[in-house]
Amino acid sequence: MFYIGQGERTVPIGPTEERHCPRCDEATAFQPQLKYKFGQFDLLFGFVYGKRYQLACSQCNHGWVLDTKETERGLDKVPIPFHLRYGSLVLVAIAALGASVYFVRHAG
Ligand SMILES: [Zn+2]
Fold this sequence. Notes:
The chain crosses the membrane at residues 84-104. Helix content is 28%, strand content 44%. The protein has 108 residues and is of the alpha+beta class. The protein has one domain (4-106). Strands 1, 2, 3, 4 and 5 form a five-stranded antiparallel beta sheet that branches. The protein is elongated and about 75 Å long.
């Protein structure tokens, strides 16, 4: 009944840019990406860890880690599903709701 999972995702966050790749030793397309790991309880609650932005060579995956704050400033939104970003908040909200229902029922 209770589903627990974890995983890792790499999400492209913008158009590729051409750069010289030291490993391929030629100009290749570099893809800006968000890479993160996540843990998940059921399909509703989750959390994200190990989040980082990177610029990776599309051929050999060699790349650079990008500055998180600077990269997020250039994004419309952080491409992490809502339930993973705010899953723990949802959990707290439901717990609070449950607690208030309990107290209302038991008041008077
Ligand atoms: Zn390369």
